[in-house]
Amino acid sequence: MKGLIFSDEMARIDWLDVGALKNVYGVKGATSLAVPRGWTPPFALVPSSIVASTDATSCLSSVLGDACTNRILALASSHSGLIIRSSVVGESIWDRGTYRSVQMETLGDDAIERLNAEARSVIKSAEGRAAGLMIQRYVRPASRGEFGNLQRISKTRDHWEISTVDGVGSTSRQRLNSQRDQAADPNEPLLIRSGLARERLFGSIGAWLNNELLLGQSQRLNCEWITDNRQFYLVQVDEEDEDIYGVNPFQVRISPAIRPARNSGHYLKLTDASGLKAWDKLKVLEELWEPDAAHKPTLFFVPLAELPAQASAARLEALEDDFRTLIGSAGIIVRTSVRAGGEKLLFLPRTECLTPEAAARWCVETAGTLSKDHDGNDIAFVAHRFIAARASAWTRAEPGNPIVEINSLWGLPDALQYCPYDIWEVHVPTGVATGYPDYKSDMLISRSDGSWEYVRVKNELARGNSIGSTEAKDLAARSTMIAERLGRACHIMWFVGCVETDGTLFNIPWYWTEAHAADRNTDRTAYRVLLVSDHASLEKFIAFDGPRTRQAVALRPTALELMRDTKFIVAVGTAAKSADVPIILYGSTLAHAYYQLRKMGCAIVTPTEKEHSRVRRAVNLGKLVRDKIPAKIAARHEVEITRRITGNLRKGFLISKLFEEALEVREATESAQKAEELADLFEVFRAIAKAEGVSLEAIREAADQKKEKSGGFEEGLVLLQTGIAVSDRSSIADLERGIGDVLAEQTSDEATEIPFSFFGFMKLDQPRSVYFEKLKVRLDIILRPDRLELKLVRIAEQLGLPFTDEP
Known about the structure:
A hairpin with a 5-residue loop joins strand 28 and strand 29 (752-753). The model is unreliable at 611-619, 729-742 and 796-807 (pLDDT under 50). It is built from 21 helices and 32 strands. The relative contact order is 0.06. Helix content is 30%, strand content 22%. It is an alpha+beta fold.
C-alpha cells in the first residue's frame, strides 16, 4: 500500500527530515520516525491521504487491503494488543490530550471489525482536521510519565525533569542535568539495569536527544514514556513550538486611571481626615503615601451602620446613584474594611468589577450577612474604580535593612497567592538590583465585563521578568521609606505599571501587613504529589487510604472564587496537617495564603524560591557612588569599604558612570523618573567637567557655537554611507532596514569591532552573541545595569559534535 510505513521496515530518519513528513503522517507519527527503533514499540503509520478516504461505508481495512491490515494486526504480540492513536497534521504540544487514542487489548476473530470501529472513532476525534493514524503495539505500563527540558522546566536545554504518575494519580518529579552524561546507544534498547540510577538512564537519553537527534538545534522536547519493568519506551515526542494562542503581557491593554466627578453622595463619602484614622483600608493612604504624593488613589467609604437597613427601591436607587456619579458606570470595586488598629482580618468579602446596580445590591446583601457576626460600626465598605496594572508585587522591607525583596508577576495580585513568581533583590543604598525570573505560564486579568480569568502567556515570554530593574528599584526605595515611616518590618502589595490619562506610568502601594518570617522549606526531595485544585480533589486527598510516605499536596486552586476563600485554605491546611504531609505552594511567601497556612502550623515547600540563601554577604561593587552614599550605608549598620580616588583613575570611573546613568535614562518609563535619571547624568557630567578644569559656562558657550556651526542632535539623523558617488541605492536601503539592529562586524577570524551603538540598542539582561566560527567560539555579551557580562562558549564542546560551517 503506497504511503503505509512499518517502523521495522524503515530506518530511523534525521530530525531535519521530520518536517517534510508532518503533512503526510501528522506530527505524532513523523516525530516517532526519528526515535531509535529499540526505544519505542513497533508501529505502523497510515498517511493522512488514506485516512481521508475512509468514511462510514469505506472502512480502513477495505482501503488498506487484507495484506496490509493483517500486517498491522501482527504488530500485536501474543500477550498484548494494539493502541490506535491520532496523528493530526499541524498538532502542537499545546494540543496534547485533545485527540483520542484507543486501546485494543486483545485481537480475536473480530479483530478487523474492531480495528475499523476504533480507527473510525479516533479519526472522528480529529474533528475534520487532516490526520494520519499511528497504530502501535500496546505495552501494558507498570509505570508511566514524561521527560522534558521545556522552557517551564529550565532556562537551559541540558536541564531535564522526569515526572512519574502512580496508580492513584500522584506525581513525583526529579530534576537532572544531562551535560555530563554519555549519550545512550541508539542501537540498544533502554534496558533497566541493576546499579544504573533512573536519572542517569534518562540523562543519557537527554544527551542523545540534545546532541545527536537535534544536532545542535535549540529545540526543546517533551517525551512521554512507559516501562514494563524490563525496559523504558518513548511513546511520544513533542517539540515545544511557539505558543500562538498565548498573550504577550506587554500588549494587554491597561485602561488609564479615571478621576471622580464629585466628592460625596447620599451614602458614599470621599476619604477625609476622620476616615483615614478610622478604617484600615483608608489609613493606608496615610501610611503608604506622602501627603503631597502624585497618583494617590481616590477611595470612598461608608460604614455598615450607615447603609439602609432595608433594601427599598428608593434607597437602592440612591446608593446606585452614588456609585454611578462618583466612580462610573462600570469597573466598581467594593472591599470590606475593619477599624484601624484592630486585628487585620484576611479574605474579607470583596467584589470583582461591578456595575452601579450590582454594587448597590452587593453592599446591602453583604452588610446583612456581616452584621450577624460584627457590629455595624466596626465594619465599612471601601469603594473605588478598578485599578488596572501591567503587573503586581509584594515587597518585604524593614527599617535599617538595606535589602528589599520583591515577589512579582504579570496581572492581578491575587495570583501571587498560588502562582509562580519572579524574585528581585534590591540593595537600596547602591541601587544594585538582581532579578531571579521564574516561568509564569498564566496571567490573571480582568475581562471587559469585570470578571477575572486566567490567560496563557506566550511560551517564549513566560520566563521573562514581569517587572524591570527600574520598577524594582522604585518599589524597593519607596518600600524602605514606608517601613521607616511605619517603624516596623512590613509586606507591601503593589500595582505595577498603572497608566495615567496622559500615558505616564506609575506604581501604587495598595496594602500592607506585618512582616512574617518566611521560614522557607526548599527541600527538593522527589515528593509524590497530589494536586488539590478544588473541593472534589481535596476530598480525594482526604479519602486516600494508601501510604503517605514522601507524599505532598500541591495547592493550586482553579476556580477564582477559591483564591480568596479562607475556609478552603483552612480545609486544605487541616487535611495536610492531619495526614502529616507538606503543602507545595507555588505562590509568594509574602502573600496571604502562605501566612495563613504557616499560622496553622503547616509544613510548606516553596519550589519557586531560590535554593541559596539570600542573606547579603560581602559584595564587590567597584562602582562610583554619590558622596553621601557611604555615610548612609554606615547609618544602616552595614559594613562598607570606600576608597577615595583622584586623577586619571577618577576620570575613568566617571566615564563608566556616564554610561551607567545613560542606560538608567533609557530604562526610565515616566516623566519623574526620567527627570531624576537625567539629573544623575547631569551630575556625572558636571563632575567630569570639574575634573577636567572646565567651567559649565565655557561648555555651554562651546556647545552653542558648535550647534550654530554644525547643528545639534535633535532631528535624529543617522549617517548610513558616504562616498564620492553612490550609485547602488539598494545597499543604502538595506542599511536603513537594519538601522535598529546594530551588529558587531567581524574584521578577521580573531577580531570583531563592536560600535558603541551596539550597547545603545542592547536590552538589559538579554544576551547578544558574537560568533568566531573558525575558532569554534561564541562570545555572549550581556548588558547589566552597571556592567558588561562576557561569556565564552566553545561551540564544539557545548554540542558534543564536530564543528561545521553548515547551517
